[in-house]
Every structure is written in C-alpha cells, then in structure tokens.
Amino acid sequence: MSQYPHDPLRQDAAPGTPEVPEAALPVSVDEHVSAAVAVVVESPADSLPVSELAQVSNEAEVMVPSSDENFDEQSDHAEQPEGEAQADVAAEQDASDATPKPAFLGDAANFVAPAKSAAAEAAEFVARIFADVQGKDSKEEPEAAAPVDAAEPTDAEASASEGQESTEPSDEHNAQEELLAAFVPELQGKRVLVLGLGASGMAMARWCARSGADVTVADTRDAPPQLAALQQELPQVRFVAGAMSADLVNGQSLDAVYRSPGLFPATIAEVVEAAHAAQIKVGGELDLYALALRELAITREYKPSVLAITGTNGKTTVTSLTALLVQCAEKTVAMAGNIGPTLLDTLSKHIDEDTLPEVWVLELSSFQLDGVKGFEPTAATVLNITQDHLDWHGSLSAYAAAKARIFGEKGLMILNREDQMVMDMLPPPVRVKLQKPQLRAHVTFGGDMPQRPGDFGIENVSGMDWLVRAHEADETSRKGRNVQEVDLHIQRFMPADALRIRGRHNAMNALAALALAQAAGCSLAPMLFGLREYRGEPHRVEPIGIVNEVEYFDDSKGTNVGATVAALSGLGPDRRLIVILGGDGKGQDFSPLALPISRYARAVVLIGRDAPQIEAALQDTGVPMLHAATMPEAVEVSSRNAQPGDGVLMSPACASMDMFDNYAHRAKVFCDAVQALADDAGQVLGGQS
After folding, report:
1. CATH superfamily membership of 191-283
2. Is residue 505 flagged as an active site residue?
3. Does the active-site annotation cover 110?
4. pLDDT digits (tens, 9 = 90+) for 327-353
5. May I ask the CATH class of domain 8-103+289-533?
C-alpha cells in the first residue's frame, strides 16, 4: 500500500523504475548527483523513491527563504542601464541557518540514530542496502571514491597489526597536507583595482581586502553612497574619484581589475582596453566567487552544489522557488546574486559563521555573466531570451551570449525547449573516444508534453493540466521493440492548478525549479509540498484584490515586452483584461505585444513617455487605446471600462523612471489607487481568487 493513501499527489510521485539514457546524464557522474534523475524502486504498490523513505517519517518544518529586495541588474552605479534606482539591500537573514542538517546514512561509524519508529528504521536499512547494490553512496552523502578491493592480509601481517592502529598517514592524506602547505591564495599580496562603488563594488573590495590584496576602488562620483562604509570598514583601501581613464591602469603595477556589473561598457572601456593591453586580468564579482569556491575546495574540501538561474524574465521567481524546494528537502541553502544580497558578502558571512551551505542558489543577470570565466555550476538554466538591455549589450545576440556563459564547461544545462535562442545554446554533439557523438548533458522543460527521457513538461488529462516528467519505460515494455525507439513513462507530479502562482509561465517556472533542485539531489515528495506552498514574489503578477467583481494584478516588475507577454498569456485564458502599459521603453520593439493584446485584452490604457510608440505597435489589433496622465487616472479609466469577471493588469512592459522612483514606487502608487477604488465603493479590498 502507498505510504500516502489519502494523498494522490504523493502517490503519483513515484513511477516505475526509470532508466536514464546517456544523453540525459551529466558528462561526469562525479560532477553531478544523478543528473537530477530520482532513482526509484519497483514494487507492486505505489512507492516513493528509496532515497526518500528515510525522510517521510521525520518531515521537518518548512521555512520560506527571506525575501530581500531584488537587485534590479543595475544596482551598482548611478549610471544604471535600465535607470531603475535601487535601495541598499539589507543583509540576508539566511533561512538555512535554522534548517537542521540531515545525518549521513552511510556514515555508520559515527551515526547515532534518534529514536525512530520501526518503519523508519526499516526504511533507512532498505536505503542503505539499495545504496550498496547500486555501488554508490546515499544521495545525502558527499561524493566519495569507489571502494577498491584489497588483498587479504597474510597471517604474519594480521598478527603484527592485531591490537594496534597504524600511525602511518595515507598517501591521500600526505598529498592533501602537501597541497595545503604549498597553497597561497591567489589574491594574497596582489594589487587590485575595483571599478564602481555600488553594492557589488563594495563586496568585491571587502573580499579582496580580506584575501590579502592591496585594493584601490574607482568611481566616477565624488561621494558614492558606499564611500562612508568603505572608509570606515576598510581604511587601508584607496578611493579614486573621477573619469575612468587608462591612467587607473598604466604604471600602477596592477594584477587584476574587477568591474561592477552596473557600469556601462562605454564608461569603463578605456580602463578595460588598457588592462587587456597590459595582459592584466579583467573580471567581476562572479569571477571572484568562482575563485573562492575553488580555493575552499582545496583548503576545506568544500564542494557544494551550485544552481544558477538567468533569463530575461522569471529569474527571481525561479531562484526563490528553487531555494524553497532545496530547503524543503532538508538541505542547507544560501540564496544570493542579483536577487540580493551579493555573492561575496553572503559567502563571507557563511565562512565567518562556519555555516557554509550544502547548496547555493544564484540569480545572475546578463551584466554579472558578461565576460565571466571559470564559473562552473552543478546545474544552470536560461529561462528565456527576449529583447532587453540592448543599450548595454549592443545587440540581442551579444545579450544571449552573455546569458549562455552561465553554463560553464561542465554544468548540467536546463533549457526552455519553447525558446529557440535558448535551445541554440546547446553545443553540437562531441565524439568521445570511439563512442558515437554525444550531446552535452541537458534537460529541457516546456509547456507541452516532454519527448525525451528526463525532460519536464505539462500534460493535459481530461481538461486538467499536470506537471510531469518523462522517464524511459522499463526493460520489459521494450522487449521486441526497435532499439532506436524510446518508450516513455510519464510521471505526474501535481495539477498545475494546485500551484498558488498563476499562469502557464509560472507552471513552467515551477518545472525549471524542480529540475534544478533535483540536480542537487533533492527528494521529490518534500519538493512537491514546497511547490504547493509557494506564493510568489511581490510585483510579479501579484493579485491585489477584487473591487466591483473586477480583480486587479500588480506586475510592475514587468519592465520589458517579454514579461508582459508572459503575464498576458498566463492570465488571459481565464478572463478578459484591461491592460495598463507604458513608461520608458528602452528602445524595445513593442510589436510582440500585438498578438496577446488582440487575443486577451478588452482595452489598453497607455501612460508614460513611450505611450505613442506602444499605440503605433498595437494600432491594428482592434483593441481600444485609452490614455491617462497618471497612474491613479489609469486605474480609474480601467475600472470604468472593465466588466464583472474581468481583470485589470498593470504590466507596463517598460521601465519606470520617466514617472516614478523605481518599479516598487510604481507598484505602490497602483496599489494605493486600487485601495482608493475599494474605499469609494465601500468595499474591503480582498477576495483574491
């Protein structure tokens, strides 16, 4: 009988034993934990993966990661590419600190089991036996070398060694000691220039200084906001204000230059060219983070799973959701990067507190990824590519190339198969020795049925959409078939409607998060619980409330066309929409809005500087174009044109700086206007569907 007789979702979480083809596995088994593929044991009844059996009787309390304010990809400098001003991000209260670290089942010599039920003890025993049969340790153990059979000792050797322990250090121990003795941190004693004193610039200055480097920080501003903190915390660090010219490099005997991600390439071009001419290393915060992990692997044998997320839209949602899923699976986790706080400040905090996590979940922007070298995640995803930040990168192809750097050389690639620019990032097959050419290890996700073993997708069953994954069918079902045929078993996880986050795009975000977390060895059952509990991020298609039978949605973070298309496609099938569009368009092409607007919109209300360009792009849709001078007026116009059952979606497809301080300020003005509507109607704002 199933362990969850009253929970069909958990019963469905365990299919028959999947067989994973080589194409779906990582290049190196040692580099990844089973390529995000859960191993399950066949039984006559429904069953969970064996790796989960020891956990179900002791399910820990789920703790949602703290929600720090998002770094908006430009937080490091006044000359921000998107023009979105950002508040300083407070230090993250890492939810992983409160998460108990699971004991390693395989460490039998040191493991002291707490009082458990007989069922729990039996489950652990089965898990150990299964691990031995498979020739590998439990997924919860750190990677270890395969055991080597040793010859039996002679009688003389046995008697000589009986009753005493060998004091002779092993060759492996000697090699590690020699490596540590010879190890010198790469930054120690080096002269380093940091460009830009924003959040990332300050973090890089701190890290380089604590690593023993001689640090200079340069900024075009005379008194950037972080200057007082720099002078107080790091009085030994020099600060230089003014234009970023080659004089910062020439004759300075520098060893490295590290640039803040918010700086326009044109602003620092002269410095970078001078550094390249002098063969001086140029990098950014992600380069320093990757270097730090390599050094920690040597000095502390610290080898965490690193899960990295980028894309034009959905980064923050997938990052937060992935961290929650990892935490639900009882692994310690740290979340950092573009989402805030910075990579290096977060790493420093965990080193100082001796709380280095098992898993890192990183949100990375195109600015952080541009030019990075040496970053090797366990698994990474590019969620989508649409036009954005072209003023910074120069072209869409350059923007996509920066995003593609997230995969490194070895990481498991998790790809959106519905986005051709993302799929084009998969390198061509490579011939290894005498084998047939093989594709790099990758998994795909999409809103359709998966067609390859290991891929994720959505299956419609009797009108209900399910989150699913494909596995290769078992051996018996393949007998008599052509070896080239792939017979798939579809594993259903949960109905898409069970998610608290709305829309098809969020169902795909959930699939991406599942794929990432499984790449870190996370068990399925607790992750499905986390999926059902996740409520989404502020200002991302966030339901505000219902007034006069019309529901209002805040998607102020929809600062580009792709984000607004996703919001329209997610909400539109369930209702007609009044859409508030406009602001600083950043030179985007607004024509991709035409199809979803014609399909789902009852009317469009235009605001902001680039309203005329948006209206021109939508003139053939047949949808009424209305105008408003302010956000409160736009909300009032929307309410007058909406009908009962409709939705009002504020998803501007533009940046906010032409009318507001930032996207959060824009959201507040919108929400205040909706609240005023409710007050005028004598209603309590609420009743979100």
Report:
1. NAD(P)-binding Rossmann-like Domain (3.40.50.720)
2. no
3. no
4. 999 999 999 999 889 999 999 999 999
5. alpha beta
